[in-house]
Specification:
heterodimer, A: 948 residues, alpha/beta, Ubiquitin-like (UB roll), Rossmann fold, Dimethylsulfoxide Reductase, domain 2, seven-stranded mixed sheet, 36 strands, globular, B: 71 residues, mainly alpha, 4 helices
Amino acid sequence: MTFQPQSDFGTPASTSEAQVSLTIDGRTVTVPEGTSVMRAAAEQGTAIPKLCATDSLESFGSCRLCLVEIDGRRGTPASCTTPVEPGMVVHTQTPRLAKLRKGVMELYISDHPLDCLTCGANGDCELQDQAGAVGLRDVRYAVEADHLNQPKDHSNPYFDFDPSKCIACSRCIRACDEVQGTLALTMEGRGWDSKISAGLGSDDFMGSECVSCGACVQACPTATLIEKKVVEIGTPERSVVTTCAYCGVGCTFRAEMRGEQVVRMVPNKDGKANRGHSCVKGRFAWGYAQHQERILKPMIRGDINEPWREVEWEEAFAYTAAELKRISESYGKHALGGITSSRCTNEETYLVQKLVRAGFGNNNVDTCARVCHSPTGYGLKTTFGTSAGTQDFDSVEECDVILIIGANPTDGHPVFASRMKKRLREGAKLIVVDPRRIDMVRTAHIEADHHLPLRPGTNVAVLTAMAHVIVTEGLADEAFIRERCDWDEYQHWAEFVSDARNAPETLEPVTMVPAGELRAAARLFATQPNGAIYYGLGVTEHSQGSSTVMAIANLAMVTGNIGRRGVGVNPLRGQNNVQGACDMGSFPHELPGYRHISDGETRKLFEADWGLALDPEPGLRIPNMLDAAVDGVFKALYVQGEDILQSDPNTKHVSAGLAAMECVIVHDLFLNETANYAHIFLPGSTFLEKNGTFTNAERRIQPVRKVMTPMNGLEDWEVTQKLAQAMGLDWRYDHPSEIMDEIARLTPSFAGVSFDRLDEEGSLQWPVNEANPDGSPIMHVDGFVRGKGKFVVTDYVPTDEKTGPRFPLLLTTGRILSQYNVGAQTRRTENVVWHPEDLLEVHPADAEDRGIKTGDWVKLSSRSGETTLRVTVTDRVAPGVVYTTFHHPATQANVVTTDFSDWATNCPEYKVTAVQISASNGPTDWQEDYQELSEASRRIAATIEAAE
Amino acid sequence: MSDTLATLVRMANQIAANLQHEADPVAATAEHIELFWDPRMRKMIRHHGTEGLSDTAAAAVQQLAASQSAQ
């Protein structure tokens, strides 16, 4: 596809169903009521000159370039702020308008550098385009004073700010306000002195509250705000729409290219998940794809103490297959297993689980969703009948009250957080249940109506107490429950929650949430017309993760908040393809489509298609694999796109498990931490180098399109296929579309999905089948998938992880905006300027007790292990609670976390670890030993020879 | 008791504690283990006996053992 800028209709589309017809330049056009004249003209193909208008922002009417004449009206109104009316007759091009526009443009240009030929935006500048559109040929004004020598701001690693080129249209400010919702930018000064400022006059962009989402850069009509890459490389010459490989929001982007080089990633206006917005990761942090540390050749070694030896692909596949066969013959087929990745495509994930089931001959396949959203699968399948969220993201626009529990959307799901904030600014109410004072509790123009700062580990108690209030105060939606849920089960549950032991007052000593505040929050949630619940890993990563998910489902059902827009249960998925990895049969007990492996009829379907018999028994989950490895019965593991040593809990146990295996195969972009224990390394490809699909948190299946040749020579699905072929399987896929065809053939909820349909529609939300040929934006509209909604009694069972004199504090972990998961990608980008190391948040009271200040090094100890990191003292955490991230291997926060896990799914209890902190003056012995191991393990023979 | 067995005992107790409000907590616990544990894990817990198990978990494990014997 040749390069075409995204179309810009000038003002947002109207959602009105009423239609209005008018005449523009002699042609009749019919548009929704509320549409601006500018947009109506654009929709009929007439581009009215404009500068301050763009269709991602509300009309502003400041540039005076979009003037039109309207029959029967005086003057020349701005078309961007003038709504259409029936019978209106508009003229967009008259001698009077031409003269006015040329005069306006002349004023703009009189104070603008005339360096177009050397400007980074040459050829991609709206000011340049509009000067041409209005026919400006000279500037008559003598320059006595100007703004042409303003100092540039290069402080942001991804974009420059050159105020000399600013035309003060305010698009950047409005983008920050309306789209991103950070309100970091302002217009400083008045009149001639007006200038864009990132906060205070003394602030540069890096020093401001700017979160580098890129909305201002995208909105800028000149080169005032411009990507450094465009300045460096030049303007793009083609674009490909693809899907971001970061979080579960699933933003689509236009990868704008020159040859095989990405110039920039621009959020796709037609993206139904992101609606043209982006965050610092998807927009800018893609440089890891060409990072010098990428491994591009396969490598093998006989022992993890040896240096790596580079080999050709053929040798790598033959060696890997031989090792797997040797281990299978020596120890039995159950000694093998595989881990799929939520960072990889549906097709790749499907193939890995197929390789395990069909090639290894067992069901020892698991996925990184084990350690994040496996309780969502269990909880929502039990209560609703489907292991997925109920809404699309657009649904938030109709919420009246939003309950966020165990999620930090501004950091973890920033693009959706912006949409949520927009709805909150429009007046929706907000309840936040979180031990930390996350940004959503109080941020620009937003303040939570209720923040319930619960003690970590007491989610179930808080939710049950809320249900207690709703049931005992007569706020339950009985009509909904009688119609949609099992009434007997409801009565059993209602009796349980109504018990005095579940009253907020009774549970306050456990939850630490003031009963009055909890009661008020419950009443608010139950009494608004549309209540929606959004949750994240602060719900799932607990010993009662699955119970909490079911308690959330109970809360939605008892208030009738299921089955329409503006309501629902919405798991915010951590990684880009968590939903897809789960859909694709990555769990050891389920085939694709969440069908249990013991289901003979389903097994027969796959057996007939794959031409072999399947093991009917569930396989091992990741932690069970590691236990079995330590026990000496699990010997080989194929890990695609995951770094379990850094991401999984109790690092020492993970390393012991990996060290006990005879064949660890890591298929990844980089020599990650798990690769320290690997015997075979298969280089992976980035999302820019392959075709496939991701499925986001709203069940939206979206295309991933190859924009450059894989640097390693193979897409990941090809690597898995060639490995399968080396093991004797007759796989003959020529393209990922054929894998999707197989998925659709075998998975009822994907029956109507194909690459062709995805190309036509842009995306599809499963289920896509005969009953829902165009997909399902909202689930459970006329009834639950399981029939009647199931209320499940969720009694609060305290975790086994207890604080005490040795470990008096509770550690909870999470992520930060600029980094992603184990940081493998983001640490290899400029994002490190925002988060170069993991920090430990400590409450001032706890810090003072221990004589610790911000910036001090501390030893963080638990029953599992200890590490050191620096402290930031903040009352964002409650007394007795400390918090850190797990993005940096030098910290290895998971050295400290424990083996405790969710009762139903074994999802680790990352969010509750009893710890102690004490002043420290250096790394722990473990950190030093690990650093030594890590350096030794990354030796590559060819590199050593070259060095010698 | 090996670390793995200790983990399985803890897991069985957790399952039993969280299914205590089911109509038949013992059967529910046994069914959960049957559906989600691999054969080796089930075999280990069956052969373990009742040490460290809650009453419900112990009864569930016995039910699993009886079911296995009947097959």
